[in-house]
């Protein structure tokens, strides 16, 4: 989509796109919370390991007994997966305790499935040998898989690289958090140190130790300079006014922010309770795409973009020929934009102008702009110039739905003028977004219009769901052909 123009208030998402629950609960009543301070890949493996092992155990036994995967075994594997997903994270437990947890959970699951099979006479669909084999093979497989995962997790974390973190407030809970992170073999955080307004001698006198990086007022500059990924605020509730000022300063960074453990009402993005090495923290500003949400988002992007590219390939070829034949210059316009975590990415578009601006000053397209070619005017009006960005989605630089990426020059301009502007970079930029389907599309010639777009982007982060993404995709098709603000 092109840049936006409307200062109307952003509507609320539809009822079907309600905010996600603060921690999903499995059918056994376990809270399947994901651990902060843990690599996203490790989080995903934790919650899918047990369901996948149980599913594979059913499939293997089905092939051994029947020579093929028959419908009864497919149904059983689906039941086992749905009843155990998402799995309980066990890395922070001792191995012996995790074995006890696996066995007790397995006994409960097996009892439930056998009770259902007996009541529906479904047990007759399986041989006695298959039932006995699954009773011992499934828990053994779970124990072995979890043991191997424990051995592999530190290696995976080392290969992924550490995330940079700092703690604001050198007090009891801050010191305890730093100690637990240092002692945990499953944390991917590198703790740089503390920020506190008290001098180091005074902190040592009251029993606190650790690298003091500076005063609290210096955190935002340090975070931007050192590209800090996570910031933990460990300050008492009595300092609320100071914390509010601190949060305003930190909104110009791309760091994820957590309280340890206090929380007061503020403008929160995807707030939820998490744990760092079994110590409670509360997210204040976090991406919605962690753990399984991130996996769902990425898989949906890949599947949908492949399908769409297959369907529109004749259109892409036709537009490419049209651009080449109607005006001199390249077919594809490559422009630097800010992507996930504020990192620069290259975004593709069909060239719609006689110029390819990508410098420190970029003039937005306006009504009657003489730089726009005759074909380009049609492409921009219908957003067909954005179609090559489905390749960006496959590359992992963009998502189909998300905040629209702005030119680097515009980002540097507006991050200084709009509070919380950089928070929209907590997620990958999108081809379309919540702002675009609510009339905020076209030229943003005033600050209020850009602020309205940013407000909608942040609203999307607060209320993300797969249903909301699908709603935005379908509504985009209807919006682009009647939008009067695209130039």
What does this structure look like?
- This protein is α/β, with parallel strands linked by helices and about 475 residues long.
- The chain folds into 3 domains: about 40-160, no CATH class; about 160-285, NAD(P)-binding Rossmann-like Domain (Rossmann fold), CATH 3.40.50.720; about 290-480, no CATH class.
- About 45% of the residues lie in helices and about 10% in strands.
- The strands form 3 sheets. It has a 7-stranded mixed sheet with strand order 3-2-1-4-5-7-6, with helices on both faces. It has a two-stranded antiparallel sheet with strand order 8-9. Strands 10-11 form a two-stranded parallel sheet.
- The longest helix has about 35 residues, at about 290-325.
- It is flat.
- The termini are close together.
- Mean pLDDT is about 80; it is low at about 1-10 and about 10-35.
Silhouette: flat
Oligomeric state, counting identical vs distinct chains: single chain
Q: Classify the secondary structure makeup into a structural class.
A: alpha/beta
Radius of gyration: 26 Å
Largest sheet: 7 strands, mixed
Strand content: 5-15%
Series of secondary-structure elements, N-terminal to C-terminal: HHHHEHEHEHEHEEEHEEHHEHEHH
- Report the strand count: 11
**Distance between the first and last residues' Cα:** 11 Å
| Tally of alpha and pi helices | 14
Give the helix level as a range of percent. Answer: 40-55%
Return the average pLDDT rounded to an integer: 80
Total domain modules: 3
Poorly predicted regions: 1-9, 11-34
Strand order of the largest sheet: 3-2-1-4-5-7-6
